[in-house]
Amino acid sequence: LASRILSGRGLRRIVNATGVVLHTNLGRSVLSERAVSAVVEAATRFSNLEYDVAAGGRGSRYDRAVPLLRELTGAEDALVVNNCAGATLLALAAVVGEGEPEVIVSRGQLIEIGGGFRIPEVLALSGAKLREVGTTNRTRLSDYEAAIGENTRAILWVHPSNFEIQGFTESVGVAELSSLGLPVIADVGSGALLPFGDEPRVGDAVRDGAALTVFSGDKLLGGPQAGITVGSAPLVSAMRRHPLARALRADKLCLAALEATLASYLEGNAAEELPTLRMLRAPEEEIRDKAEVLARALAREAPGLEVDVASSVARSGGGTLPLYEIPSLAVRLGGVEAETLAEKLRESDPPVVGRVHEGRVWLDARTLLPGDEEAVVVAVRGALG
Question: 0.85 exceeded by the pTM?
Fold first, then answer.
């Protein structure tokens, strides 16, 4: 039994040739070299995780991440837990208190995220009663105003990051909601600190008056999986004291990677140092060069294969920017049965995951990392036997 379990290999490297940068099934964000070095040091050495070196006594595990988050977002305080759904749950639980608390949410923002987790279920776990307002496609400020009662504790604003409603629509932004005099908890999801299409940025929500802003660490931020909350010092402090905070606590490896990632932003080097941002922002000419180099290598090593380069469309993935298309280039493999070739590529070591389209295997060059081209050549050569 043990040998069968071990033969499964567990987590291992995958060559992502799908063109989906934040591929949820393939691990989402890829850490920077700086973050990896920080994780290795934290994992293989003792650290000052909860030790104040200057005072010679107990410290807080958040002493390093919090100042970075405050500086980057303009918020008063911050807290890091192990995932974004947990951060949303903790924020709600800390804000609503006891009694029969109600939280107002637009019907158009009652979303479901990956794995079947739904916002109404998270709200129920927090102890709050859901007060739905508006309709799926149109919610006005007056809908929120009419729903406010003596038991209303907060307004939850959720960015529908994994879908988009178009046409006859109306919605209310964080700034307008903040004028109603209730704490606004803004779940912006992707954690964008830099501009990406119409994706809301964390700092914008803070400036618009959100009492708490919640976001992920492993999406557009480009760091490790984490649930990050920034906002009002009293409310963040209440979250920190809540019993759920201990259950959702981020570990030292997550914090090490996050601190290194945030440091890249603070120094102005994020676009160059973070692989996720590089893949999303790389110019089409750079991707073309990479695709053509791979195509030439495959034509040389697998002469019986039909190989060419074609325009493709990459996507951000990870429940972000659902309609955002990124121009890309893909190497197309033909002359063999496409499904069979794709299966054999997935069976290689490391597995190469592309997509089958129009009877060919497409390998999108935008999501190929350094060293992946060589692995693709070896995999294709092995697949053709």
Answer: yes
